[in-house]
Amino acid sequence: MTGENGRREFVKLSFAAGVPFALGATPDSLAGFASDPGQEELPFFEVVRNRRSVREFKPTPIPDEHLQQILDAARLAPTSGNQQPWKFVVIRDPSVIDELKEACVRKNLEARRARGMEATPEVAEQVTEGLKGYFSAPVYIVVLTDGESRYPTYNHWDGPMAAGYLMLAARALGYGTVFITDSIPADVTKEVLNISDRFTRVCITPLGVPVAWPDTPQKKPLDEFIVQDRF
Amino acid sequence: MTGENGRREFVKLSFAAGVPFALGATPDSLAGFASDPGQEELPFFEVVRNRRSVREFKPTPIPDEHLQQILDAARLAPTSGNQQPWKFVVIRDPSVIDELKEACVRKNLEARRARGMEATPEVAEQVTEGLKGYFSAPVYIVVLTDGESRYPTYNHWDGPMAAGYLMLAARALGYGTVFITDSIPADVTKEVLNISDRFTRVCITPLGVPVAWPDTPQKKPLDEFIVQDRF
């Protein structure tokens, strides 16, 4: 649990003057926090406000106990009839990460060729460069649901909720994630990781210490989401 | 979709006595916390461990600022390309809640008749009694995604994540929720709340102070979910 000083310091930074309250901490306070993952445990609403989609990571390794804590939170997501239909593929082997990256580049070039677009070595280099940030993390987690679960027609709700929990838990310990669908396509993970048709991929996320915590993208005001009582 | 048996099984499982308590705070600490909603803010992992599916509520009203804080957390869920495709129907008018309940009973009896099952006044009373707990909360929230969002084919991920965030945020403030799909069917909410075909319902959840925090249902051990590197 958090030491009192650490938490107060964070809270103070988070509510620094001039920051619109609705969306949380300043980039500075986030950067400070991020440099010391796992050393503090943020209060719930701080975690929600400070989670970001992160696309560039430091190579800093993730201790097993943090990884376990993050996955342990994911499996506690709401689940239909307590079916718990999830699998988490946890990729730490750098050669598997490299294979994923190479397969992404290959697929991208194939798709370009199929559309009659250029797929020269220069383009290949650009594509590789474009994926560099996504592939800079020490760990990747593929969130899957199992088509042979007890209530498979409910998996489409259970899957994303576990992914959402996982990403919040990572943030609580100071790690960044991003819900990737297209940039690392489902068929690439399927091929490289030998995922059978029994499973449906929800997403793949890198997991690591961010190079920087991005600013909050512009969000719609809360009022725009609310309907009172009925339409 | 799963029928009556599946659902009954779910409820039975959820409330099974003697479930080994493996996942967090003691029922006592939960009960103490729950009696005083909003007076404490739990650290992140405590919230995750202590969220439960709650099916019976006290009539205690929910202050506007708590409701706002909960909805504000929901809209900060990860969202594809920052599209934020959500609507939250917030039902506080008791007459609308009554209409929902009556429509649920009516639908249930219609479904019984269509299957050649009994739908006598006694059955109607049993059905009403069965729904009593679900309809004992002061507030209901329907989570919707908008088919006219920027990337509608990604809504099926964004919707459940916002619902998951909402339920965690409620727990952080001491309120119970439950991700309801079948017990309050989508077509009932559609009819009573005038929801157009433009929107897809993710779920409806009651929101209120639990009569009691249920024990944790039996959960699979973490190891069962993990695949190392690849299948």
Summarize the structure.
The structure is a homodimer of 231-residue chains. By secondary structure, chain A is α+β, with helices and mostly antiparallel strands.
What this model shows, in words?
- The structure is a homodimer of 231-residue chains.
- By secondary structure, chain A is an alpha+beta fold.
- Chain A has a domain at 51-93 and 135-214: NADH Oxidase.
- Helices cover 41% and strands 11% of the residues of chain A.
- The first copy, chain A, is built from eight helices and four strands, in the order ααααβααβααββ.
- Chain A has helices at residues 4-14, 27-34, 44-50, 64-74, 94-114, 121-131, 155-172, 186-193, and strands spanning 86-91, 139-146, 199-207, 226-228.
- A three-stranded antiparallel β-sheet of chain A has the order 1-2-3, with helices on both faces.
- The termini of chain A are far apart.
- The model of chain A is unreliable at 1-35 (pLDDT under 50).
Derived from helix and strand composition plus strand pairing, the structural class of chain A reads alpha+beta
What's the tally of helices of chain A?
Answer: 8
Shape of chain A: globular
Query: Which strand order does the major sheet of chain A show?
Result: 1-2-3
* Largest interface: pair, residues per side: A-B, 74 and 76 residues
Mean pLDDT of chain A: 87
Name of the CATH superfamily of the domain at 51-93 and 135-214 in chain A:
NADH Oxidase
Question: Gap between N and C termini of chain A, in Å?
Answer: 44 Å
The ordered string of helix (H) and strand (E) elements of chain A is HHHHEHHEHHEE
The poorly predicted ranges of chain A are 1-35
Q: What is the CATH C level class of the domain at 51-93 and 135-214 in chain A, in words? A: Alpha Beta
Strand content of chain A: 5-15%
